[in-house]
Amino acid sequence: MSIVKINVLTVPDEQREVLEKRFAARAGTVESSDGFEWFELLRPLEGTDTYLVYTRWRSEEDFQNWMSGRGRAAHAGGSADGAEGERPRPAASGATLWSFEVVQQAGPAGPAQS
User: Fold this and answer.
1) Which residues lie closer than 8 Å to 104 by C-beta, 6 or more apart?
2) Quick count: other Cβ atoms within 10 Å of Cβ 11?
3) Of 55, 64, 52, 47, nearest to 92 (Cα)?
4) With contact defined as beta carbons under 8 Å apart, do 33 and 90 qualify?
5) CA dist., res. 112 & res. 114, Å (int)
6) First vs last Cα of the chain: how many Å apart?
7) CB contact set of 23 (below 8 Å; sequence gap of 6+)
8) pLDDT recorded at residue 87
9) Which residues lie below 8 Å from residue 84, measured CB to CB, with a gap of 6+?
10) What is the tens place of the pLDDT at every residue in 25-73?
11) Structure pTM?
12) What is the pLDDT of residue 90?
């Protein structure tokens, strides 16, 4: 079964837009990676300053391969809000990586059969 990585990011209110724009600018950097299955950036609605970055991978090895290659490059590059070659200030004030193995899954049920 697949594995899930959830990056838990503490993002102050004034940095939310910055974080979301950075993720939008990196669109496509993970989707073509071998073993990649799914991505979601989850914005909190109320009561917390925690964003969740959800990725799903075929295996731990696929995730590690991405982290040591394209993932490292995606997290190290500069952007429009920083000088050339200078890494911009992080939008998150803290980050924790959670790892899970998928042991059960379900999707929506199809139309009822008669």
Assistant:
1) none
2) 23
3) 52
4) no
5) 6
6) 32
7) 41, 53
8) 65
9) 78
10) 888 888 999 999 999 999 999 889 999 999 999 999 999 999 898 666 6
11) 0.78
12) 84
DSSP 27-72: TTTTTTSTTEEEEEEE---SS--EEEEEEEES-HHHHHHHHHTHHH
Contact criterion met (CB below 8 Å) for 11 and 91 = yes
**Cα diameter, the chain:** 63
Q: What token pair was written down for 80?
A: 């429009």
Report the alpha-carbon distance of residue 89 to residue 59 in Å, rounded: 32
In degrees rounded to 5, what are phi and psi of residue 61?
-60, -40
**Residue 66 in tokens:** 């991405």
Cα 14 to Cα 37: distance, rounded to the nearest angstrom: 31
Flag whether pLDDT at 79 surpasses 50: no
CA distance 37 to 90: 26
Please state, in angstroms and rounded to a whole number, the distance separating the CA atoms of residues 78 and 86. 6
